[in-house]
Amino acid sequence: xxxxxxxFAGLSLDDLYDALALRCRVFILEQGAFQDPxxxxxxxxxxxxxxxxxxxxxxxxxxxxxxxxxERSIGRVIxxxxxxxxxxxxxxxxxxxxxxxxxxxxxxxxxSAQAHLQAFYGGFGFDAVGEPYAEDNIPHIEMxxxx
Length: 147
Known about the structure:
Layout: E1 2-7, H1 13-30, E2 44-50, E3 56-63, E4 72-79, H2 88-103, E5 109-114, H3 118-122, E6 127-135, E7 138-145
Parallel strand pairs: 4-5
Antiparallel strand pairs: 1-2, 2-3, 3-4, 5-7, 6-7
């Protein structure tokens, strides 16, 4: 996977289109309707993972500390259906955490995880905080990774 770590203003039009198309394909077509563009893209870092053909296969964003939560937060974690089960999701999270740790050394990270992925994120050092809640009609739980 070829990785690109860029602020919103640094995204090319093609990067932005590809990211929104993948997010729509998974978050809206697979999981049900919700407002994906939420006003946070402009205050976030974006991690795009492209395969050898240049197709976007993995994506996440990291919202700046103090915007959504007091901590930086990883969200919109997504892999294309074609690469699921290949380890691409683990590779995406590992790369995202490495970029976060380089950008904000020693700082905690908060996520709003789909509840069924709690063990996945737990494998990266995230601990559940609080009680499960519904977000966009999907059970979620806040999780925190401390340095």
